[in-house]
Amino acid sequence: MTPPTTRTWSRRGHTPEIRVRGRSRRRLSVAALACYKTGEPSRLMYRPYPDARPDGRKSFSWKDYRHLIQAAHQQLGGPIVLVWDNLNTHLSADMRRYIADRDWLTVSPLPPYSPDLNPVEGIWSVLRRTTTAHHAFADPADLNTAVRRGLRQLQYRPDILNGCLTGTGLRHQPP
Q1: What's a Pfam family this protein contains (predicted)?
Q2: pLDDT tens by residue, 34-71
Q3: Structure confidence by residue, pLDDT tens digits, 72-92
Q4: Closest among 54, 159, 175, 49 to 167, alpha carbons compared
Q5: All domains of the chain in start order, with CATH
Q6: Distance (Å, rounded) from C-alpha 94 to C-alpha 66?
Q7: Do residues 137 and 1 lie in contact, with contact meaning Cβ atoms separated by under 8 Å?
């Protein structure tokens, strides 16, 4: 809920200010998959979860990631090679069992502490610099709406998604 700041322009001697009434600890958790397939436009799939969930959980569980992976499998209609970071939820025993039971799912972990190899980190950077920059959110619903709108706009920009992959140094052949 605390607005991120970035650079902006103003008249010389007039520093722009955004006043924020206190610091809220409320947040929005988002999981995303950047999907790349040779000969097809890049795709972005995501699931946002507010911190006020019915089960009281403030972060994604392995079941939430499972639902996202299953939705991706249904939409993409083929095998998935999932490259992800070493988040403890990704490495849980339940998640490992789920992955082992799916012949269409192959997982390759990123090396520890390597956000520069994760294209989704580039997507978060773009979102912070565009949609949420210089915005003081009135309430959690306002934050949720802004993030969803920003991610929806990125879904229609495969050039930006390709740029996030290119920024990792990994190869991708755009359509």
Answers
A1: DDE_3
A2: 998 878 899 999 998 877 666 777 788 899 999 999 99
A3: 999 988 899 998 888 888 999
A4: 159
A5: 28-166 (3.30.420.10)
A6: 10
A7: yes
